[in-house]
Task: inverse folding
């Protein structure tokens, strides 16, 4: 499988469980064909801790039978299927455990190391498209990287229930690299509680700022509310056959729901078939407001469940 596992740490970038120099591994991996897709996990993972390493969980080759909530991203994104042009997956690990303030600071530091890695990749493979997919606080990692990257370093970014403020996303997308990139901001009212907690724990860059789950308006971004039935119906024309939401509260359904990862793969691998303008036109003009799912009257009088966190 064409995958490179790279971790950010206090001493800089390193390969996961390997003493080899990451620079030479990146240079060798960049010689291939197909897209380069960088995967960035969120809060509560740490590649230095075997039990909580993303490389044995969501970045594993297959979903572990004892941990069905840890949906393995790689195969759903089209890696390991034997296609000669399936490209390169880079699983980017960073230290995201401990209290949320430490993880937030770690995300910023990891973002600066990510920028160095992407700069090297772009230098060695200038014609290969580089895309990024993140979950949760992984959005802070790529937004920090965008601030210093040169223009046209990144083609597309998919953020799944990002743990960032709207102003942070806006500033990143107005940078040199950000202006040339396209952002697909995956949100869900299932994530409202987590957005609310983030706003209470992390100080906003500007007064009265809100989490990016509430959306923001930029010409190079689209906010897709994945628990909206009308949105899901319209996404089907772009290969977005995503199962409907089942829970009132869930931070992981953006990638655990059947069909979701397949849709992101379609967006990253075939951007011409999923043009940003068409996606912007497909989403409803008035998304559901915060808390609308938590306090909605359940269909048929059956209470909606609270989703379970993937097993630790």
Result:
């Amino acid at each position: 499988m064409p995958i490179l596992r790279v971790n950010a740490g206090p001493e800089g970038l390193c390969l996961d469980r390997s003493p080899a120099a990451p620079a030479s591994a990146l240079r060798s991996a960049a010689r291939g064909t197909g897209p380069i897709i960088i995967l960035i996990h969120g809060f509560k993972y740490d590649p230095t801790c075997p039990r909580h390493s993303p490389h044995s969980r969501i970045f594993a080759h297959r979903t572990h039978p004892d941990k069905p909530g840890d949906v393995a991203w790689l195969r759903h994104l089209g890696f390991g299927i034997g296609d000669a042009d399936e490209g390169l997956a880079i699983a980017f690990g960073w230290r995201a455990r401990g209290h949320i303030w430490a993880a937030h600071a770690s995300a910023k530091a990891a973002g600066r190391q990510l920028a160095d890695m992407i700069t090297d990749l772009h230098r060695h493979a200038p014609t290969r498209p580089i895309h990024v997919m993140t979950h949760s606080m992984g959005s802070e990692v790529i937004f920090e990287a965008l601030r210093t990257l040169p223009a046209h370093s990144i083609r597309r970014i998919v953020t799944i229930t990002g743990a960032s403020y709207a102003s942070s996303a806006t500033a990143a997308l107005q940078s040199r690299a950000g202006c040339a990139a396209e952002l697909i901001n995956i949100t869900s009212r299932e994530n409202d509680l987590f957005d609310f907690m983030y706003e209470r724990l992390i100080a906003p860059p500007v007064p009265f700022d809100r989490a990016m789950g509430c959306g923001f308006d930029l010409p190079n971004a689209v906010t897709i509310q994945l628990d909206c039935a009308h949105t899901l119906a319209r996404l089907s024309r772009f290969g977005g056959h995503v199962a409907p939401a089942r829970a009132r509260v869930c931070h992981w359904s953006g990638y655990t729901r059947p069909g979701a990862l397949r849709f992101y793969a379609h967006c990253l691998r075939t951007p011409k078939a999923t043009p940003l303008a068409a996606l912007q036109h497909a989403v409803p003009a008035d998304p559901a407001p915060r808390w609308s799912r938590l306090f909605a009257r359940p269909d048929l009088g059956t209470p909606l469940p609270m989703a379970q966190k993937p097993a630790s």
About this structure: The chain has one domain: 3-301. DSSP finds eleven helices and eight strands in the chain. Residues 3-301 form a domain with the Rossmann fold fold (CATH 3.40.50).
